[in-house]
Amino acid sequence: MSFVVDTNFIVAVISEDDVSHDKAVSLWDSLNEAYVPIIVIAELSYFFIRHKIDVGIISEILRDSKIKVVENNVQDIYFAIDHKDYIRHYDDFNDLIVLSTARRLGLPLITFDDELLDLYHKLKS
Fold first, then answer.
1. Domain extent listing, the chain
2. Which of 14, 17, 46, 121 has minimal CB crowding within 10 Å?
């Protein structure tokens, strides 16, 4: 199975303290490919810096054979702009870019963000 993955999913996989860790690891084990938008890599770096975690861990993440980094493009940006009514918080724009990536690739999205997941199902078609 292949999915586009959100930042919080990757954090949950690698952080044993995360409340969704067990579920994330179970999902991770079932994946063949995890498509990671560039914006998610940027968000991971912000998360690691904020929590004083060595950003070098991103190299380890990228070396995992399941990880497929996906470039974001202007179509993703326009999608976010076209759906600006859903932007309520500073990170919602990034979430829309992740959602657009999943739509563009025709892949399901894994996220533990309930609002993003609801929006994904609403805008999936």
1. 2-124
2. 17
